[in-house]
From TrEMBL, chain A:
This is Glutamyl-tRNA(Gln) amidotransferase subunit B, mitochondrial. Its EC number is 6.3.5.-. Keywords: ATP-binding, Ligase, Mitochondrion, Nucleotide-binding, Protein biosynthesis. It comes from Esox lucius (Northern pike). It is an enzyme of class 6 (ligase). The keyword Ion transport does not apply. It comes from the Eukaryota. InterPro entries: Asn/Gln-tRNA_amidoTrfase_suB/E (IPR017959), Asn/Gln-tRNA_Trfase_suB/E_cat (IPR006075), Asn/Gln_amidotransferase (IPR018027), Asn/Gln_tRNA_amidoTrase-B-like (IPR003789), GatB (IPR004413), GatB_Yqey_C_2 (IPR023168), Gln_synth/guanido_kin_cat_dom (IPR014746). It is found in: Mitochondrion. Residues 389-538 form the Asn/Gln amidotransferase domain. The lineage of its organism: Eukaryota, Metazoa, Chordata, Craniata, Vertebrata. Belongs to the GatB/GatE family. GatB subfamily. GO terms for cellular component: glutamyl-tRNA(Gln) amidotransferase complex; mitochondrion.
Automatic annotation (TrEMBL), chain B:
Transmembrane segments: none annotated. It comes from Esox lucius. This is Glutamyl-tRNA(Gln) amidotransferase subunit C, mitochondrial. Its EC number is 6.3.5.-. Keywords: ATP-binding, Ligase, Mitochondrion, Nucleotide-binding, Protein biosynthesis. GO terms for cellular component: glutamyl-tRNA(Gln) amidotransferase complex; mitochondrion. The keyword Ligase applies. It is an enzyme of class 6 (ligase). It catalyses: L-glutamyl-tRNA(Gln) + L-glutamine + ATP + H2O = L-glutaminyl-tRNA(Gln) + L-glutamate + ADP + phosphate + H(+).
Length: 539, 185
């Protein structure tokens, strides 16, 4: 593959004539401003291996590290007994502690500890048996106390791995598996929400979100492009949803991802990092990261230097141990817990581990093993919400093999769903309807091309059953041999030069004749029969 | 303080001894044994009905508090302290930003330097092999609360506390007000 003039060896340029909003790093925490609307061609980084050529200088590669804040799915907040709810009247879910009124103290929520431990175990982390709470001081209007209780020094879980996959390769149908190291998982408080009213020069503060428990997952910078980052975040979303610790809706702010992006030449020290914040979907994440990498490469190629615009980056000051909270102890086994303590006061690792549900990667392996499908298929099944259940429901009710069903589900159904931007639960074709259709095809009542037509009809008019559509439009398979003989003869007679070519040895022209026959019969003829008759007639 | 069992007579005796006694009325009788421990403290061992030994400490008459009568601390000399560190101007700026404290003039800086010198006395203490303590609650058990709603729904009371509110929102000035630069001081 020839290297483009931009110097990035495996760059593939795609012209996307869309307006794209780019979220730019700003000084303000959790406020974003659209810097510019851009009509441009975005170069998509395909994350393929670098072509090593001794004569050319090393190319610049991107280095991406993610910081994910996942809102813990609990009934109450991390340190107070007020409710956690997505939309509520402003300041109605605020307790005295959340408003930092003097005299209030934090009381830790057991559910949040269990959630953090479950997430740590699912990501193969080492759980710190003793973890400490700290205060991180900074001034901002949505942080009434002036500090955030977090776990910087000794977090609850360290040293884990997130293994993710994405479809790559030339035709995007090869499963590429990668992993990224997780530096730490810590419990921390969320801040309130601020609405900026620039016209009147004031900020409106809503503390409903203040104090909600967050799990901050800090990942090492092991990724190199936006696609990998998006795939990693998707896998993390699936894991958290399977565990039930976080619902993972990026658009509702339950999963917030900040990306630290820099570029360097392999072997050289890392370049200056910039932060990309406040992204509300996986696709925007990939685009924003790729844009930032491209921007930094452009700056460096023009001889400039990348400016780090986010202040207090990786700050080491402003931390103080939280004096109101003793260390958090997690016990290995029920026997190691202190004897005279109530069971509701101890978190036992063994019990949490036993309660872990089926994780996405186990689910994929199970699908591959029980249905004998490819890993790529099971990846698509698990990646799309509800598709696995759909697939299993169809397989149960139809006598067609899983491999056939996979083709229908992953390509036909999913293609239509994406085209109409629907989720699996909104599909007009239910698993039962698809199962019926496949049964009709298996029984030989309709051909495969007709089946696809009927599927389209079912999509458009879901009230009818497959049988009804077949009867109405007379799409049943034509197996009347005399009829087929007649049509084949007609075709053979009207295309003598093709027949000559076949007799001469070119067998591929037979397909063209078959196509003509199918057109005559409106796709209803049994293809096997047609082929055998045509072969007979042209021999 | 531990539970201490008394008879009525003993109660009176102990009241005479001094104000630093903690006691509670209980019904079981007990026998008190007094063992003279040191010149200044008695250790009183009381056996309650369940034969559980219980300790408490109280002081004798005359010396009513633990505060010594003569000062026992020694002043730290200037030569015992590590050399005084200079405070550069940008560090002062950083401190002003982090703590939102204003050091407007030379007097403020002198005060800051004195404060730092005072805190330097901590370096005299030998902490070799001692783990830092970050909370006096180190040995306590962290209480884990059940995940059930118990608070909230007091927006009106909270909003009353704020000077400025707009339709159930608190009002704050936009973003962070940047501190004036060094030249503007």
């Amino acid at each position: 593959m020839a290297a483009s003039s931009a110097g990035i060896g495996t760059l593939l340029c795609k012209n996307i004539n869309k307006q794209i909003e780019i979220f730019y790093p700003t000084n303000r925490r959790y406020t974003w401003c659209v810097i510019r609307r851009i009509c441009t061609s975005i170069s998509r980084f395909r994350c393929q291996g670098q072509i090593k050529r001794k004569s050319a200088p090393k190319e610049l590669v991107g280095v991406v590290g993610l910081e994910v804040h996942a809102q813990i799915q609990s009934i109450t907040k991390l340190f107070s007994g007020s409710q956690v709810r997505f939309q509520a009247p402003p300041n109605s879910l605020v307790s005295f502690f959340d408003a930092s009124l003097p005299g209030t103290l934090p009381v830790l929520n057991r559910r949040c500890v269990e959630a953090a431990v479950m997430t740590g175990l699912a990501l193969d982390c080492v759980i710190n048996r003793k973890s400490l709470f700290d205060r991180k001081h900074y001034f901002y209007a949505d942080l009434p106390a002036g500090y955030q209780i977090t776990q910087q020094r000794r977090p609850i879980a360290v040293d884990g791995t997130l293994t993710y996959s994405h479809l790559g390769g030339t035709r995007r149908n090869t499963l590429i598996t990668k992993s990224v190291r997780i530096k730490q998982i810590q419990l921390e408080q969320d801040s309130g929400k601020s609405l900026h009213d620039d016209r009147r020069g004031q900020t409106l503060i809503d503390l409903n979100r203040a104090g909600v428990g967050l799990m901050e997952l800090v990942m090492e910078p092991d990724m190199s492009c936006g696609e990998e980052a998006a795939a990693a975040v998707r896998e993390l979303q699936l894991i958290l949803q399977a565990l039930g610790t976080c619902q993972g809706h990026m658009d509702e702010g339950q999963l917030r991802v900040d990306a630290n992006v820099s570029v360097h030449r392999p072997g050289d020290p890392w370049g200056v990092r910039t932060e990309v914040k406040n992204i509300n979907s996986g696709r925007n994440l990939a685009r924003a990261i790729d844009y930032e990498i491209q921007r930094q490469v452009g700056v460096l190629k023009n001889g400039g230097t990348v400016q780090n615009e986010t202040r207090s980056f990786d700050r080491k000051s402003g931390f103080m141990p939280e004096p109101n909270l003793p260390p958090l102890i997690v016990y290995d086994r029920p026997s190691t817990a202190p004897p005279c303590v109530h069971p509701s006061q101890v978190v036992v690792l063994e019990e949490v581990r036993a309660g872990l549900p089926e994780l996405p990667r186990a689910r994929r392996t199970r699908l591959v093993e029980s249905y004998d499908i490819l890993p790529e298929h099971s990846f698509t099944l698990v990646n799309e919400d509800g598709l696995t259940d759909y697939f299993e429901a169809v397989v149960k009710e139809t006598k067609a093999g899983p491999r056939k069903v996979i083709g229908w589900v992953n390509q036909v159904l999913l293609g239509l769903l994406h085209h109409h931007s629907l989720s699996v639960s909104q599909s007009p074709v239910t698993p039962q309807m698809l199962a019926q259709l496949l049964n009709l095809q298996e029984n030989g009542q309709i051909s495969s091309s007709v089946a696809k037509q009927v599927f389209q009809e079912l999509w458009r008019a879901p009230g009818k059953t497959a049988q009804q559509i077949i009867q109405e439009q007379d799409l049943g398979i034509v197996s009347n041999t005399t009829e087929i003989h007649r049509i084949c003869q007609k075709v053979v007679d009207s295309h003598p030069d093709q027949v000559q070519a076949i007799r001469g040895g070119n067998k591929k022209v037979l397909n063209k004749l078959m196509g003509l026959v199918q057109k005559e019969t409106k796709g209803r003829a049994d293809p096997v029969l047609v082929r055998s008759i045509l072969e007979e007639k042209t021999s | 303080m531990s539970v201490v069992n008394y008879t009525r007579t003993l109660q009176k005796v102990i009241l005479n001894i001094g104000p630093r006694c903690y006691h509670r009325w209980v019904t079981t009788a007990s026998v008190a044994l007094r063992i003279r421990d040191s010149k200044q403290n008695f250790r009183c061992r009381l056996w309650c009905g369940l034969l559980t030994p219980v300790h408490y400490q109280y002081s004798t008459e005359g010396n009513t508090s633990k505060v010594p009568s003569v000062a026992t601390w020694e002043p730290v000399l200037e030569n015992q302290l590590p050399p005084a560190k200079q405070v550069p101007a940008d560090l002062v700026d950083k401190l002003e930003r982090l703590a939102l404290v204003d050091f407007p003039n030379q007097e403020g800086l002198v005060c800051l330097k004195k404060a730092i010198r005072f805190a330097d006395q901590l370096h005299v203490v030998d902490t070799e092999g001692v783990d830092p303590m970050d909370s006096v609650l180190e040995n306590r058990a962290l209480y884990l609360r059940e995940d059930a709603v118990a608070e909230g729904d007091c927006a009106d009371r909270l909003l009353q506390l704020s000077k400025d509110t707009v339709e159930e929102y608190f009002v704050a000035p936009p973003g962070n007000i940047p501190l004036p630069g060094r030249e503007e001081c």
